[in-house]
Write a structure and sequence with these properties.
The complex is a heterodimer of chains A (258) and B (90). Chain A is an alpha/beta fold and 258 residues long. Chain A has a single domain, classed as 3-Layer(aba) Sandwich (Rossmann fold). Chain A is 39% helix and 19% strand. Chain A is built from 9 helices and 8 strands. In chain A, helix 3 links the parallel strand 3 and strand 4. In chain A, 45% of the residues are buried. Chain B has a single domain, classed as hypothetical protein PF0899 fold (2-Layer Sandwich), CATH 3.30.2320.50. Chain B contains 2 helices and 3 strands. Chain B has a 3-stranded mixed sheet, covered by helices on one side. The chains are: A alpha/beta (258), B alpha+beta (90). The interface between A and B is medium-sized, with 29 and 29 residues. Strand 1 of chain A pairs antiparallel with strand 3 of chain B, so a sheet runs across the interface. Bound molecules: guanosine-5'-triphosphate and magnesium ion. Magnesium ion (MG) binds next to helix 2 of chain A.
Chain lengths: 258, 90
């Protein structure tokens, strides 16, 4: 009998695909965000508000994961951006292969921003890298302020926590400060934004975070492109793609729910 | 409940790492406290799928680790594999 030390991620195949996605997205300067929360915390509604508030010319794409139905994709399609539904048919999380498959034909290069709504679940999506730049966890105030302690995995991995449905605070015994403290106990550097998708409170702060994060990604991509002597793309690098944009956009807008 | 997916990823890796003339008899995995994988349910899923696979019999050792002493608590790794030699038909 012969023991061999392996020390390799169990999800190495997922991680390999995620790394390829990340490389492709980084090459074009596109920012990819993976939204994770319990069912019903407001992932789709936050994305709807985001699509409404972003400049119309933003070249973005949305993938939304659910076990069943294309309800969320239908809601998101109203904003004129390309949206695809990923039906996992039972799986409680998205994995990198599903994302790669659903991005096929949507040249990663045309996208400045890729928004991925994960399956509603605070546990399983945590382990699966989708090639995103950041995971964002949404916690709504009706879920209880102890959730960061009960489900530490996602709060540790998320760069940003959005505390949603703050319009309901008068009706629930949710202590904002305690929720923040609990999240910071798990992840001291986590950024926190409070929002209400129904009243619009905090959405300005969220949009500024998004813009700053996208700018940071473009800067990183440009630096990498300079090192590789190639052209940077992305959020603000619009001029060089002006002539190609029309064809690209028509291709993007032709895409719809599959 | 993504332990079924994790269990099949373990089998995939075992299959990939096995060379001709060797047969894996035991696999050791390391699960950190923050990765949200339940060891009992991982064992249950592993045993259910290994039974009907070409890799049976294959035993599983799970090392569950806290975020302390150099561990981050986010481990989700194959730690080791044990092989026994088998005769290769020529
Ligand atoms: N009062 C209030 N309701 C909200 C807010 N945000 C979302 N909702 C409502 O919460 C419900 C669930 O919102 P969704 O956006 O569908 O939640 P989700 O996280 O996408 O849900 P799944 O995709 O099923 O996991 C809907 O009825 C929304 O209208 C908010 O800030 N305040
Ligand atoms: Mg949704």
């Amino acid at each position: 009998m012969n023991r061999v030390v392996i020390e390799k991620s169990i999800l190495s195949e997922n991680n390999r695909i995620a790394a390829e996605l990340r490389e492709a997205l980084t090459a074009s300067g596109a920012l990819a965000l993976n939204f994770i929360s319990s069912p019903g915390s407001g992932k789709t509604m936050l994305l709807e508000k985001t699509l409404e508030l972003l400049p119309a010319h933003t070249r973005l794409a949305v993938l939304t994961g659910d076990i069943q139905t294309d309800n969320d994709a239908r809601r998101l399609l109203r904003y004129g951006h390309p949206v695809r539904q990923i039906c996992t048919g039972g799986a409680c999380h998205l994995d990198a292969a599903m994302v790669a498959k659903h991005l096929e034909g949507w040249l990663l290069k045309v996208v400045q921003l890729l928004l991925i709504e994960n399956v509603g679940n605070l546990v399983c999506p945590t382990s699966y890298d989708l090639g995103e730049d950041a995971k964002i966890v949404i916690l709504s105030v009706t879920e209880g302020d102890d959730k960061p302690l009960k489900y530490p995995g996602i709060f540790r991995k998320a760069e940003l926590m959005i505390l949603n449905k703050i319009d309901l605070l008068p009706h629930v015994p949710f202590q904002l400060e305690l929720a923040r403290e609990n999240a910071r106990r798990i992840h001291p550097e986590i950024e926190i934004i409070e929002t209400s998708c129904t009243t619009g409170a905090g959405l300005g702060q969220w949009m500024r975070w998004l813009e700053a994060r996208a700018a940071k990604k473009v800067a990183a991509a440009s630096a990498a492109a300079t090192r590789n002597h190639s052209q940077p793309g992305g959020w603000n690098a619009q001029l060089e793609v002006q002539c190609q944009r029309r064809t690209r956009q028509s291709r993007l807008h032709a895409a719809s729910v599959d | 409940m993504h332990e079924m997916g994790i269990a099949s990823s373990v089998l995939e890796t075992v299959r990939k790492e096995s060379r001709r003339g060797e047969r894996a008899s035991r696999v050791g995995v390391r699960i950190g406290e923050f990765v949200a994988v339940d060891p009992d349910s991982l064992r249950f899923c592993f045993e259910a799928i290994v039974k009907t696979s070409d890799l049976a019999p294959l035993s599983l050792e799970i090392e569950w680790c806290r975020a302390e002493g150099g561990r981050r608590g986010d481990e989700l790794q194959i730690a080791y594999l044990e092989f026994e030699e088998v005769e290769v038909a020529t």
